[in-house]
Every structure is written in structure tokens, then in C-alpha cells.
Specification:
The protein is of the alpha+beta class and 168 residues long. It has a domain at 2-115: 7,8-Dihydro-6-hydroxymethylpterin-pyrophosphokinase HPPK (Alpha-Beta Plaits, 2-Layer Sandwich). The chain contains four helices and eight strands. The chain has helices at residues 15-29, 66-79, 122-131, 144-150, and strands at 2-10, 31-36, 40-42, 53-62, 95-101, 106-108, 111-113, 157-159. The strands form two sheets. Strands 1, 2, 3, 4, 5 and 8 form a six-stranded antiparallel beta sheet that branches. α1 packs antiparallel against α2 and α3 (122-131) packs antiparallel against α4. The longest helix has 15 residues, at 15-29. It is globular and about 40 Å long.
């Protein structure tokens, strides 16, 4: 059974409901979450938009392969109204990224694990550090805490108190 780290995020529509629905769909289609981070609010990364993102990390145990997880992620994103744009960075109802899958290193055309931008994004490292600061990145051989301390991204990542992390 694989352990995968999924980062959920979105900045349009009902952001809280999209996170909750994404968590539920991940549970239904990919596997049971074993750990869920707080919800964090951050500015859009790589583009400008008037609405900030809400992000949350979930750690899931799954019988699916990384490729199957990615297929299910696409289904969930489409179900929740994600419209893919030719631009890499744009607003979205929901985005789900595979940050890690066990300690696998995978480089395929449509799937790279660990996520290739992870070490440059505080909005991904902060929830990871909340749940597993001692986790070692299999490529850089550094802990998440160390990567967060070295991260060049200076955008604020604000914990949102009082938001439910439970599924629907």
C-alpha cells in the first residue's frame, strides 16, 4: 500500500466547499486520508489574481499506482469544475498535486514525483512541515523543515483558524 502526499488548492468559487469536496472524493476514489493539515491561505503563485488560494495537504494510503492516482486526480478536478488552461498558472476551483508517493522518484512525460517545484513553494512546504517536518526529500536528501528554511519563496502562508479539516 502506497503513501501519497496530496496538496489541494483553489482560489475561485466556494473555496472551503471545494476543499471539502476534494477531500471526500480523494477518500472515495484514491484512499483513506491518514493525516490532514490545517487550511492555509496564500497569494497566487506564478500569476496575479484578486482572490487568494486556500491550500491543504492530505496524506493518503492507497492501493493505486502513482499513474492511477493521477488519473483519479484528473477526474476529481474535472468533477469540481476545474478548467484547464493553456497557461500553466491560472485561477482554478481545485488543483491537486502529488508531492510525494512513498520515497519514489519518477520522471515521466505527464508525471514527476516528487513534485518538481515543491522545494520552491512555501505554500506546499508549510503544510508538509506541519504534518511531517522530518520527512526526507528523496532527491535533495534534506528534511521538509530544512527545505522550508531554505525556500526562496517569501510569500506569506497564513493558517486559517477554525476551518474544518474533516470530510463532508
Amino acid at each position: 500500500m502506497g503513501k501519497t502526499y496530496l496538496l489541494l488548492g483553489g482560489n475561485i468559487g466556494d473555496r472551503i466547499m471545494h476543499l471539502r469536496m476534494a477531500r471526500q472524493k480523494v477518500h472515495d476514489l484514491i484512499g483513506k486520508p491518514v493525516s490532514v493539515s490545517s487550511v492555509f491561505e496564500t497569494q497566487p503563485w506564478g500569476f496575479v489574481h484578486k482572490t487568494n488560494f486556500l491550500n491543504q495537504l492530505i496524506i493518503v494510503r492507497t492501493f493505486l499506482s502513482p499513474e492511477q492516482v493521477m488519473e483519479k486526480i484528473r477526474e476529481i478536478e474535472q468533477h469540481l469544475g476545474r478548467i484547464r488552461d493553456e497557461k500553466q498558472y491560472t485561477e482554478r476551483t481545485i488543483d491537486i498535486d502529488i508531492l510525494f508517493y512513498d520515497d519514489l522518484i519518477l520522471n515521466k512525460k505527464d508525471l514527476t514525483i516528487p513534485h518538481p517545484q515543491l522545494h520552491k513553494r512555501s505554500f506546499a512546504l508549510v503544510p508538509l512541515a506541519e504534518l511531517e517536518p522530518g520527512l526526507v526529500h528523496p532527491v535533495f536528501k534534506k528534511t521538509i523543515k530544512t527545505l522550508l528554511n531554505e525556500c526562496p519563496d517569501t510569500m506569506k502562508v497564513n493558517k486559517q483558524e477554525g476551518l474544518s479539516t474533516k470530510p463532508l
